[in-house]
């Protein structure tokens, strides 16, 4: 399912915020249209330009408007 990456390198999916780990962030990711995958092993991945980047659940601070960097 297609999603748009926000300025803080997070995506919203299934009512939750998911972040790309800082060491995995690459040029052009911010604002890009990406695909999200939930794999059979329970992990979540973001597909961007043929690359698969791991996603981590964001802490609840995002929900109350505080800035957070994965």
Question: How would you describe what is shown here?
Answer:
With 70 residues, the protein is an all-beta fold. It is 0% helix and 40% strand. It has a four-stranded antiparallel sheet, with no helix packed on it. Strands 2-3-7 form a three-stranded antiparallel sheet, with no helix packed on it. The relative contact order is 0.29.
What order do the strands of the largest sheet run in, or round the barrel if closed?
Answer: 1-4-5-6
Gap between N and C termini:
22 Å
Radius of gyration (CA) equals: 11 Å
Helix and strand run: EEEEEEE
What portion of residues is helical? under 10%
Number of discrete helical segments: 0
Uncertain residue segments: none
On the 0 to 100 scale, the average pLDDT is 85
Shape: globular
- Give the assembly state of these chains: single chain
Strand residue content: 35-45%
Q: Structural class from helices and strands?
A: mainly beta
**Strand runs, count:** 7
Largest sheet: 4 strands, antiparallel
Task: Give the helix/strand layout.
Elements: E1 2-4, E2 10-13, E3 16-19, E4 33-38, E5 44-48, E6 51-54, E7 56-57
Antiparallel strand pairs: 1-4, 2-3, 3-7, 4-5, 5-6
